[in-house]
Structure formats: structure tokens, C-alpha cells
Structure prediction request, 253 residues.
Amino acid sequence: MGYCGFACATVCLAACSFLTAPATAQVRGMPQPAPRHGRPHRPHRHTSLPPEPAPTGPWTASRARFILSAESLLGASGYAETATGTQLGQSVEGRASGASFHLFKGSEIIDPWSEARLGFDAVLRPGITLGTGIGYATVTRDDPGPPHEISLFMIVPRVGFMLGPSRYLGVWLRAGVGYTSVTVATTGNSDVTQRALDLVVDPQLVFTPFPHAGIMVGPALNVGLSGSASQNSNRVEFTSSSYGVNAGLALLF
Prediction:
């Protein structure tokens, strides 16, 4: 190799050293640029929420998640009814009022809302309750008139709010729209069917002498929205409202 070849080789080596010098500096000390292709690495993020801390302190009614109740087992109420319609082809209009006291059994025809019923309510956070009260009863009577059987069905979908201010006391605010159907069946073909729709407001005080067991006591206000009673071709429109106080039992899970 002559002088020219040696000179060319020297120039090539010097150029390669100059080109590789910045890359070496980047490797040793300078940050490297992000790659052109693909996504840069990102740390994994946890999307799930941390678990809620366990409640502390004594148990209260507001910690329940489900309530099974026997309602209106004992109570006293007053009622007022206004009716208009036709009877025997003639227009009729009337008013009635009175009071009743009941133990387990209510007045199926006069005041169907006084009948005992079962309650099923779920407790959502923070204390909101959603549920319903359901009642059913049949009774046979022979006074007044011929023997007849009375059948009652009741359902009260409702929403509420449960508070637990202390270990032994809870406050359960609740209201809903209830439906009742009462049928009076006699030996002849003259059954009477009575249906009513009421606004039902019955807040309760819940005494819990033991955890998960409560005694309920509170007022009851049933505001008549609509109603009808029919027998053969006769039909009467009415609204019936009642008010009073009742008591019951509850299991809080």
C-alpha cells in the first residue's frame, strides 16, 4: 500500500472517531431520545378504588343492609271518607268518619291501611332505603247480613332514609304510594270490589335494645288519591284518608 492508501485510511479512521464520539457521550451521560416507533413505557395505574374502612364504634341501625319488618301489628287510627257515584241508578253522595283500634287484625273495609303487613327493605349507602310493604288477609263474617268472606291485598312500594343517632335509637323516615284491593264475596252473585290508591307516609322510631332487633313505633298518614267500589252495575268513586299511630317489629341484618 502506497502513501496515498495510507493517507486515505488515516482520514477514514479519524472521521469514524468523530462520528462515534457524540453517541458515546450520550450513552455515558446524556439522556437518549425516545424511540420513533412504538409507545413509550408508562407506569401501571390502579383504577380500582381503595376499600372503604370498616365502621368503628358501637353498632347502630344505620349499619343495617337489609330490614325485614312486621308492621302495624298494634295501633289506633281515625279515618274519613268521601264518596260519590251511582247506586240503583241514582246518584249518591256521602261522608263517613270514625276511629278504630287494632291488634294484628285491622278493619279491612273501613280502614284497610290498618291491616298488618310484612316489609322488605334494602339499605343502600348512605342510609337510603328502597323496599315495599305487602299485606294479605282473608276473614269470614256473618254479621251483619248473610255469611260473607272478605279478602284484602295491599302493596306499598316506598323509599326512605335510615339514621342511627345512638346505639339504642334509629330514625327511619319513609314514604310511598300504596294500593289496596278488598273483595267481599257473599253466597249470591253480588260481590263487592273496592280499590284505593293512597300516599302513605309512616316515619318510624326504631328502638334496638339488642343489635339487629328493633321495636318500631311511629305515626301513619294515608292520604287518599283515588278509589272506587263496584257491585254489579253500581259504581262509587271515593277517596279515603286515615291517620294514627302504629307499632311493629323489625330484624336488621
